[in-house]
Predict the structure.
Amino acid sequence: GQGSRDSALFCEAVERVRVSNADVIINLTAGMGGDWVPSDEDPSIGGPGTDMIGPEERLAHVVELLPEICSLDCGTMNFGDGNYVYVSPPSYLRAMAEKVKELGVKPELEVFDLGHVRFAEQMIDEGLVDDPPLFQICLGLPWGAGADTASMKTMADALPENANWAGFGISRME
């Protein structure tokens, strides 16, 4: 019931899919390892729930397994009303985009608000993401774009013309 960055678990799941000969595209998350919860005693230190690693570690299972696609969460964001922050700084994103491009893995540019779209476009302009870019519009997370048709239209309209994209909304029950 909990997420894990354990490469052995990713290997087991991907191996099961590959040996099944199912005609599917494998898309692995690379978003884990960016959880920051400041300590109540000293906000410069991560408190309970913090899981921070660098870009190389966030991609370790992608390097090992070479999926067709991996997620690239295109920015930092507050989650909920607590102190949980997902941290994905520009230097990490650029390093990760460069690495997945080198590996031949398509990045799924996950965007949770318009600033994330703008940064993804910057990486495209810098040549870190090949055309056509693949976007995942993520709606309904607190302090990101709302899970409604107006937010979806605004986000979709902000994407590059040649972008392939999909979208999802988190329900009130999540």
In short: Residues 50 and 162 are 37 Å apart (CA to CA).
